[in-house]
Amino acid sequence: MILEIIFIFILGISIGSFLNVIIFRIPKNESIIFPSSHCSKCQVKLKTYHNIPILSWLFLKGKCSFCNSNISIQYPIIEFASGLMFISLYFKFGITQEFFLISAIFSTILALSVIDYKLKAVPDSLNLLALTLAIIYPLELNSILFNFNNALIFAGAFAFLRFYVSYFLKKEAMGEGDIIIAGTIGAMVGIPLGTLVIFLSAVLAIPIMLFLKNEEAPFIPFLALALFLVVIFESTSITFLNNLQLIP
Fold first, then answer.
1. Looking at residue 16, what is its pLDDT?
2. In which region does residue 96 sit, left (phi positive, over 0), alpha (psi from -120 to 50) or beta (all else)?
3. Looking at the whole model, is its pTM more than 0.85?
4. CA 218, CA 114: separation in Å to the nearest integer?
5. Domain residue ranges of the chain, discontinuous segments joined by +
6. Which of 14, 130, 144, 244 is least enclosed, having the fewest CB within 10 Å?
């Protein structure tokens, strides 16, 4: 059990390290494979021991060993968050096919969330990857058709909401990326739980939006966090909806 947890955490932080590459390169339309890891300031190729998740940043004290420029704290944070995410999903699903597929979905959504937070832009390549993985989960024909139907319903609902709210506010209320992520939510958890995800994400976002006042706040990080919480606490979420008589 302990060895499994250690393995899953190492897997998670390793994936997190790769997510940092995705977060940095995809918005710039750069290859995520070539060139190999290098300092973004001096462009010198990093040694293998410079790429150890979390530990390298700590040992280097957050600075490049070649040019002494600062290395963003984003790197260890994303790696550690990915490790915790993998452990949480492991306790929920065990080491199963479901675990690996859902971990892939949430890893993609984590990268999307960080990019949306930093740039207020969402790469279609990652967004569509998350949607596709959510639709094919759990690799059964009946489930795929059911997930696809739920994705259409949720994406369509968000599209209608976008048009109406944007019209009344006289400005763009949400981006196209939010519509695709809504489809991902619908495909993953269905209509009732998906509705709870939307409600919970709004609850999480409102304090931040009130604090920012006139500044636009990216919404995908809140949708991602709400979706993760509903998936992890699925039984509790279903019980909550049953008590409200929202699930027939």
1. 97
2. beta
3. yes
4. 10
5. 1-95, 121-248
6. 244
Query: For the chain, what's the residue count?
Result: 248
Note whether 201 and 219 are within 8 A (CB).
yes
Alpha-carbon span 85 to 185, nearest angstrom:
17
CA pair distance 41, 173, nearest whole angstrom: 36
35-74: pLDDT as tens digits: 888 887 888 888 888 889 999 999 998 998 889 899 999 9
pLDDT band at 1 (very low <50, low <70, confident <90, very high): confident
How far, in Å, are 50, 116, 145 from residue 123 at the CA level?
28, 9, 25
Task: Read off the tokens for 24.
Answer: 């940095």
Residue 163's contacts (CB-CB under 8 Å, 6 or more residues apart) are: none
Q: In terms of Cα–Cα distance, which of 139, 132, 77, 140 is closest to 109?
A: 132
Whole-angstrom Cα distance, residue 160 to residue 157?
5
